[in-house]
Known about the structure:
Blueprint: H1 3-29, E1 30-31, E2 34-35, H2 45-72, H3 79-86, H4 89-103, E3 119-122, E4 129-132, E5 140-142, E6 145-147, E7 150-155, E8 163-169, E9 176-183, E10 193-197, E11 206-208, E12 211-213, E13 216-217, E14 224-229, E15 235-241, E16 257-266
Amino acid sequence: MGISSKSSWLRRARALCLVAATALLIPGFLWGGDLLASAQPSTSGADLAQQYLAALGPAGTAISTAEAKLKALPITASVAQVKAVVAPLPKALGPLEALVKSSAPSPTGASLQSLGNPTIVGQSGVKCNSYSTRASGGHLVIGGVEYQDGFQMIGSQNCLERYAGYTWQIGKKYTSLTAQVGYDLNNSCTGSTVKFLGNGSEPLPFTSNGHLRESLPIPATGLASVSVNVTGQTQLTVQVYFNCYVMENTPALSSGSHVDLVNDVLS
């Protein structure tokens, strides 16, 4: 390979590394072309600085390693080889992405919790679930980050139901709900899914990660972003289907469910 050709390849490799790292962080900032704002962390400045330092170390190492490996690739490198080099980046950049999100300004505008407490009804009319916000003393902690905006849907271990719905009257002035959903630190019930229902309990299709869905498995770690079209809906229900109930004589939950919906914005 000539010097000029090699230099050109190195420039392209560095650019690819930067693009790959940027692409991994951009989803935390942009969602459907809009700014995705997250909650302020409830830590001191010194604590937050230490959290950033702890996240930057692995992230920097991963980027440097990927850059070195990309530089070493031959000019004939395949797409599969490049993807293999950058594959470790998402895991290494995840903690940093979560901190960046948590340090962004809090979302403005209406939210579900700003409309008051929801009506909570479980399977067959059972009402043994509960609801919590920061204002009511709750703590929304996902992936080591505490969020200020959002609410928590709680299914007690002895609750005899397979699902529970949290319903708000939203009027007709809103066209969309954007939010993020994930398991709270206190959760011990994984494998659950979330749905959104409109007038008459009609399922509302929504987008998550670029895919149109009617239900979404809650990620075991981290957050999933959702965007729900609520045009023409006068009520909105967030429904959680549990995957930890005991199917014997009664469908009691075998463990407690704590699902957080954070950074929700009605527009």
